[in-house]
Specification:
This protein is of the alpha/beta class and 324 residues long.
Length: 324
């Protein structure tokens, strides 16, 4: 059967999210098309692998743009060597990073979670790898962190120095920030000023206080009530030093508390703009432009049932009149 709309063939846009621990968004697109072709064998199919800025975003952006994935050995949250990945989009000048690949909570066990010690240093190493390739724009998702260091580890990997009153480097992790006396940015990688950073951040938490990084997210990273108080006070001191020495007031900026303050670190040390993850993915997959040609749009994602640890597909379908 030949499916047409007027004098032309029907066009399907397939724009699913990944099915966690089952299929990437691209693989879902392929499965959707395979099923639809049994009924509409001559229709047109446009694949737009989607993500929301969290897990799977790098894969979706790479797949949608015809880019490539790369692996890099970096320091994990507790200093262990981990193999992280980043993507180079099809334009060759844009990179995509998920900080969780280098500094994520899945890289520590429940027994070893310790936001006093965990660091974003490996995330900085991923950024440096992209700079070494001549990348001009970096999209970075900052969900799923194991850290609470205000992005200090990330900045250290890129050449910043965090020193105590004796001029000695601080230990990594949020637990040492109360000793911070000087931030030396003279060795910060100069290429950071030439690169645009677009940060996928879906929370608006400030760095400190009742709704800040430590109080809201610290407990899930292993922080006891006493540790929460310490970490919040340390980030507050960090914000004071940043304001005094670098003349940037990031304490109450929406999103500064994301990923244990990595949002703040990116705002301090890079040319960063924070945006909602889904908006970034829609833009860089050119979903809106592709919808113009659509007669029918299929989306899909896996949902976790309340009774079983089992992912089941939730299929959604909407019609389009081709108006965008």
């Amino acid at each position: 059967m030949r499916e047409t709309v007027g004098t032309r063939e029907k066009t399907f846009v397939l724009a699913p999210d990944s099915f966690k621990e089952s299929m990437t968004a691209k693989e879902v697109c392929i499965a959707m098309e395979k099923g639809l072709r049994k009924i509409y064998p001559t229709a047109g199919y446009i694949h737009v692998p989607m993500a929301d800025g969290g897990e799977g975003t790098v894969q979706s952006l790479v797949d949608a743009s015809g880019g490539s994935l790369h692996q890099q050995e970096v320091s994990g949250p507790l200093g262990q060597t981990v193999t992280a990945q980043y993507g180079i989009l099809g334009d060759g000048s844009t990179a995509a990073i998920e900080m969780a690949s280098a500094s994520g909570i899945h890289l520590v066990t429940k027994e070893t979670r310790d936001p006093l010690q965990t660091t974003t240093y490996g995330t900085g190493e991923l950024i440096r790898a992209c700079l070494d390739l001549g990348i001009r724009k970096i999209i970075i998702g900052i969900g799923g962190s194991a850290t609470n260091d205000g992005g200090a580890g990330m900045a250290e990997a890129l050449g910043a120095k965090f020193l105590d009153e004796q001029g000695q480097p601080l230990a990594r992790g949020g637990g040492a920030l109360d000793q911070l006396a000087q931030i030396d940015v003279s060795g910060l990688d100069a290429r950071l000023q030439e690169v645009e950073f677009i940060v996928a951040c879906d929370v608006t938490n400030p760095l400190c206080g009742e709704h800040g990084a430590s109080r809201v997210f610290g407990p899930q990273k292993g922080a006891t009530p006493e540790m929460v108080e310490q970490l919040d006070a340390n980030l507050s001191h960090y914000a004071d030093v940043v304001k005094q020495q670098l003349h940037k007031d990031i304490r109450d900026m929406p999103g500064a508390g994301a990923a244990g303050g990595l949002g703040a670190g990116l705002l301090i040390f890079t040319q960063a703009v924070l945006r909602k993850g889904i908006e970034i993915v829609i833009e860089y997959t050119e979903l809106r432009e592709k919808l113009i040609a659509a007669d029918v749009v299929f989306t899909g994602r896996a949902v976790l049932t309340s009774k079983r640890n089992l992912a089941r597909p939730l299929w959604c379908c909407s019609g389009s009149q081709g108006s965008g």
